[in-house]
Amino acid sequence: MTAKKTGATSREIVYGLTSRTPAQASPQRVLRVNRGHWVIENSCHYTLDWNYDEDRSRICNGYGPENITRLRRFALGVIKSRGACCIAQTMRRLTRNVRLVFDYRRMTENSCARRKRD
Prior knowledge:
single chain, mainly alpha, 5 helices, 59% helix, 0% strand
């Protein structure tokens, strides 16, 4: 690993357990599987927790937790589908002005009119 600020390098040894044979679990394959797991974690779970503080949510009755998570994932999907480079910044911008939410999705007559001109 190389530190961005100092340029210093370090080495880390990680041990893992697997039910695969050594032939099936080469170091490259284990690393690829591990990195694949963290891609999901960073792209979805981390984003939900960071932007919505989901781990501290107090919604706990009935289908509430599942429904609110689905709404949050839907919102993140909409933002990502528009190619936003910074989800948190886009969410802050949309939160400040509700009209922007509808324009963002081109759901109002005015925003649809603009789309025809594009």
